[in-house]
Every structure is written in C-alpha cells, then in structure tokens.
Amino acid sequence: MIRDEIVELLKKTLRDIPKLPYELIEPFVSVETPKESSNGDYSSNIAMIAFRKKSDITKTHVPGGKKEGSIWATPGGTFESPLQLAEKIVSIINAKYPAQNTFSRVEAVKPGFINFYLSQRYLHQQVKEVMEKGSSYGSLSIGKGKNASVEYVSANPTGPLHIGNARGGPLGDVIANVLEKAGYKVTREYLHNNVGGQVARLGDAIYFTLNPEQKGEGYEMQYQGEYIKELAQMVEEEMEEEQYENLSQSDFIDKAGEIAVEIMLSQILKDCQDMGIKYDIIKSESELRKEAEKVIKELGSKKKIKEKEGALWFAPNDEFLKDRETVVKKSDGEFTYFASDIVYHKEKFQREDLVVDILGANHSGHVPRLMAVVKALGFDTEKFKVILYQYVRLKRGSEIVKMSKRAGNFVTAREVLDEVGKDAFRFFLLRSSPETHMDFDLKLAKKQASDNPVFYVQYAYSRICSIFSKADGYRAQITGVSEKELALLTDPEEIALMRQLIKFPFMVEDISKTFAVNLFTNYAMEIANSFHKFYEAQRVISEDKNKTSARLALLEATRVTLKNTLDILGVSAPERM
C-alpha cells in the first residue's frame, strides 16, 4: 500500500543523513492522511518528532551536543529547526528517490511537516487496480495465519433483546468483518447465561403467572410485562408435551426457568439473524461451569486464589485489580458468573491469537477482573481487547420513544428492527463511536431522502448501477480501458473521487487495530458525497467515447469500493431504489 511505501521511503531517506541517530527516530516514522487536501494526500511529522526527542539524541549521539538550539550536527550542516530537517529529507527524496509515477510533488512546510501529493497517473492506475481486484479490493494479510474470537450481544436470556444490548450486535459483527478482511480467521461467539439465580427468578415469575392464586400477598415478581405472559404460555405448552405437569412447585420452577431461557435464546438469536448476524459458537454457561473447579485449582496453584469467609476469592494483587478481590466460589459451593468467565477466556486464548469482547458500558467494572484473569492464566493481555458501548435513546423526531408495553421496561430490538429494517438498524447503530451515548431517530431512519445517511449511501450505489444500465456494452468498455483514456480523468470532481477510493485499504488496516467501526459509516458517506458531486458536475455517457470509457471505469471502481464498504457494514447495496 502507498502509505507503507511512503513510510519505507522516509526510513530509507533518514538513513542517508550522515551521523543521524536513525535507531532512535525510526520507530516513530508514520504517515497520516491530512484533513485538508491542500496539505497533501499523505503527511509525516517525523521531523517534529525528532526534535521533540532532541534531549535523548544530543546526550547519547552528538559530541558536544549540548549546544543550545541544535539537535545534532552532521557533515551536511546543523539543523536548527524541524523545518530545516524536513527540508533536508525532502531534498534527498527529490534528488535520490524521485517517484514521478507516484507523486506530483513532495514538500516541506512549517512547522516541519513533509507533505506528499499523489500524481494523477498514480490515481489512474489505482482505478484500474480497484476494478481488477473487485470484492478482494482492500483484503490484507495483517492477520494471515492468525485466529480471532469476537464475542458480542450475549444478552441476558430472561427477557427479549432490547435496543441497548442490540447496539453490540452490529458493532461486534462489523469488527469481525473487518478482521476477516484483514486476513484473520474469525470465530463469532455468543455466551448463553443459562444458569444461576436469574434463571430461578424467571421460573418463579412463570410459575406465579400460571398460578396467580399461589402468589402471596405483596409478592412482586422480578420479571414482568406482556412477554412474561407469552413466555409462560409457551413454557406451559412445552411442559405439558414433555409431561412435566405433575412436578412439585420447586421442581416446576426449576424446569420452567430452564425451558424459558432456551425459548428466549431462540428468540434473541432470531433477532440477531434478522440483523444479519450468525454465530459460529453458542457457548452455554452450564458447560463452562463443569470446568470451573479445575481452572480455579490451576489459579490456586499460582497463588491467585484465597479462601475467606468460607468462599474462594480471586486475588491476583496485580496492576489491574491491585488489592481488590472477587468471589469465584460462594460459601454454599456454587460458582459465580465470574468463574464461568475465567473458564471461557482460558478456552478462547488456548485457540485464538486475538480475543475481542463487546460489552455494555455497565460492565466497565468487569474489565479489570477479566484483564487480571488473562494475565494470571499466563496469556498476553495485549491480545485481549474489550470494547464497551454506551446506551441508546430512541427518538421519533424530537419526541422520546417511551418504554415497550410488551417488554415492560424497555424497547425491544425487534420493534425497532421491524419498523426501520435491517439496513437502517445496523447503519444507525454504527454511526456513533461506541463510547458515546447515542440517539436513534426512527423517523429519520425511515425517511426516503438524502438527509437519511443510509438512504444517501444506497442511492449513490443504485444511481451508479442505473448509469451502467444505460451504457451499451459498458463492461467491455471498462475491461479494455487504456491508460491513455484514464489520463482524461483530470477534473476536480474526478480527482476527489479517486482520492476517496484509495483510502479503503487503509481504513481496513486502521480499523482492524482500533476497532473504530463508526469510521466506516463516515467513509461510506464520503464516497457517496464525492460521487454525487461528480455526477452533478460531469456527464458520464457522452459522444466522447474515450472519456465515456474512462468515466465508466471510475464509476466501476466507485461501485466496487462502495459495495465492499457496505459488505463490511452488513448493509445491502441495492441496484434499484
């Protein structure tokens, strides 16, 4: 990729400056994309970083290097400012490593940036490359030979999936898609919390819903709402079918809770499926608890478990938990949810090179415990990433949407999904950075107009397809497009569109490391915006056959890039709207 090539060019150039302490500077060489195109297509601040490191450099590498104002002295002169060093780097690049096919110019600007401007010829070559690569455009080898696990949603199975938990669905799914595009073999996972007190309380609610006369005065069930009545009826039907109707009250409650969480799981997974999410592994907590004793003993052998008040506590005394402790086995002999997490994360790290957990912000206090466990089990915490997402508030225009009657105290994901459809559901939930609270505007999500971002992006794609349908033999024209024809793409709107298209591989690379998947929604809108501006300013099909071929090729490259972006987002690319 061009960004990597520029990094290598800078490193090679720095080596050409005599007596420069290259080994101290080399790790900091990086290239960014400026916000303003007037500052180049790519830019590096390595000269300024070098000057910020001047105290280290002068003390260890420059004889008499304490001279005020200078960073180092070389046979080429003394550099008094970042700009002077940047100018030296640029002069070497221009003299020794000219790349006329790649850059139109390389320049140093105040206070010490090195800006790289791509040549039109390079942009034209990229149009052809994007077309040739098609769906593989943007595929990288960063994760080649590596496995990654992404666990997401893992909702409480005592009720319907609500819109808050649902935010983790598209988020985790897109992270998995990005990692796959970056070369990882990805396993999508869901943890089914099917044991513990919550299951018993759900069974309790079902029993008293079916037998209200048995409920004591003043007793209030923890789980309420219309869904409990529906669930109780389904549980009763299944228990009658399995001939469980003659159980004692306590056994009935236990069995009802068991059946109910499986019914809720099937509904949650159906909601996820309709969001475009499929899982490779559904891991139940009941399975994990079978291994809890063995794993707790392993931690005990490492002096990470202590006994107190008749219970077993995880007490690693490390940088994550410090002097805090957490129960893994209660005094009654029952393992905690955290014990299951310990087993689960050991399983993951034994088979994966990268483990990603997507959790609601209410689990923030759980993260240090997980980090401590990963370290205590002997795994690399750098390979463990936890993404926390904040709550979602539903609006209809300026009006706040009230709680669901069916769920009792929240709005279900199913209600929103049915109202706005999968594409808008995913796109809107992905637009904001996960660490920020977000408003989901149902009215805007359904609007068939350009101020609806998902409509705006999909309309760009369908408009491109519409142009192709009007171009006779367009496929033959773009397949055989020549460099001479592509060289006709010189108008500002054409250049701006090409510059957007070449960002895609860098987006994949960066987001596979940062997991900032909301940037992909922004990028999709930027491509659509550049295309719409191009379409409004330029005529694609004209009497000029050469220019027509070139512009059709540019649109095919745009279609490919937009389709690949939408595929990662899990949003459809309609040919007609």
Topology (SSEs and partners):
Layout: H1 2-15, H2 22-25, E1 42-44, H3 46-52, H4 54-61, E2 73-74, E3 77-78, H5 82-96, E4 103-109, E5 113-118, H6 120-133, E6 147-151, H7 163-166, H8 168-181, E7 185-192, H9 197-210, H10 226-241, H11 249-274, E8 281-284, H12 285-289, H13 292-301, E9 305-308, E10 311-314, E11 326-329, H14 337-351, E12 354-360, H15 367-376, E13 384-389, E14 392-396, E15 399-400, H16 413-420, H17 422-430, E16 438-441, H18 442-446, H19 453-470, H20 474-479, H21 483-486, H22 492-501, H23 504-514, H24 518-537, H25 545-569
Parallel strand pairs: 6-7, 6-12, 7-8, 12-13, 14-16
Antiparallel strand pairs: 1-5, 2-3, 4-5, 9-10, 10-11, 14-15
Question: What is this structure, in a nutshell?
Answer:
The chain is built from 25 helices and 16 strands.
Task: Describe what you observe in this structure.
51% of the residues lie in helices and 13% in strands. It is an alpha/beta fold and 577 residues long. The two termini are 35 Å apart. The model is unreliable at 58-77 (pLDDT under 50).
- What does the oligomeric state look like here? single chain
Arithmetic mean of pLDDT: 91
Q: Enumerate the strands of the largest sheet in spatial order, edge to edge or round the barrel.
A: 8-7-6-12-13
- Uncertain residue segments: 58-77
Name the overall outline.
globular
The percent range for helix content is 40-55%
Fourth-tier CATH superfamily name of the domain at 124-139 and 450-569? Isoleucyl-tRNA Synthetase, Domain 1
- Give the tally of β-strands: 16
> Treating each run of at least 4 consecutive H or I residues as one helix, how many helices?
25
CATH class of the domain at 124-139 and 450-569: Mainly Alpha
Question: Could you say which structural class the secondary elements and strand pairing correspond to?
Answer: alpha/beta
User: Radius of gyration, Cα only, in angstroms?
Assistant: 29 Å
